Each structure stands twice: as structure tokens, then as C-alpha cells.
Amino acid sequence: MRNGLQNPALRLLPAAVPALVAPLAWAAWLGWDQQRDVHPDGSTTGPYEPWQVIGLVLTLLVPVCWAGFRRHPASAVLGTTAGLTAASWYDWSDDGSGLFAIGVGLVMIGSLAATGAVSGLITLAAQDPAGTGR
């Protein structure tokens, strides 16, 4: 008997879940904060606070680990990266300078590298060293 997802629609689930969770998490953690903070010395920071980005990363660990434990590391990587890239493009595309494309590229590269490392480690941890098939 074959292991894995039999239904073709279910085969898309390991990629679809991270791809849907990523933009929703982006909207929940980062989408509402659009203003830069101006400090007394005139410098600006933001618009995101570190706790917002940390919350986004921790939220995205759930679907990445979920797909990794099911031995679908490529789906976790591609789904999360696609979702974050689309969310950042949508959020930042109103920038008149066009420099948002560099930021979107950095989000894509960073999420690809981070989710690749995490899902690879999770997939290795989920392997059955005894070969019992569980």
C-alpha cells in the first residue's frame, strides 16, 4: 500500500496551508502598522516593531513545522515563501520610489532560506530511524 496523500486535492494541502497562512499572518502582525515613528532627534524607524516581526515568524513556524513533520519540506518552503512574497508586494507596492521591489526580493530570499532550513531540520527530525513505518 502506498503511503502519502491519495486524493489529488489533498496533495496540494501541504503547500496551500502555508501559502494561505502566510499572507493572513502578515496582515495580522504587520498589515495594520503603516506609520513610521519619528524620534526626538529627527530619526525615523518602522513602520514595524521587532515584536511584530517576531510574532509573524513564530506564527509561521506552525504551518512550516506541520508540513515538515508530514515530510513535505518543499511544500512548506514554497508555500510560505510565495505567501510572504505576495503579501509584502501587496503591502508595499504603493511606494512611489519603486524601491519596494528590493524589499520584496529580500523578503523572498530570507523566507526561502529560513523556511528551507527549518523545514529541512523538522523533516529530518520526523524521520523514522527504526524504519517502523510510523
From TrEMBL:
Please indicate which superkingdom the organism of origin belongs to: Bacteria
Q: Which residues cross the membrane?
A: 51-69, 76-92, 98-126
Keyword set, alphabetical order: Membrane, Signal, Transmembrane, Transmembrane helix
Q: Write the protein's name.
A: Integral membrane protein
**Which interval of the chain is the signal sequence?**
1-27
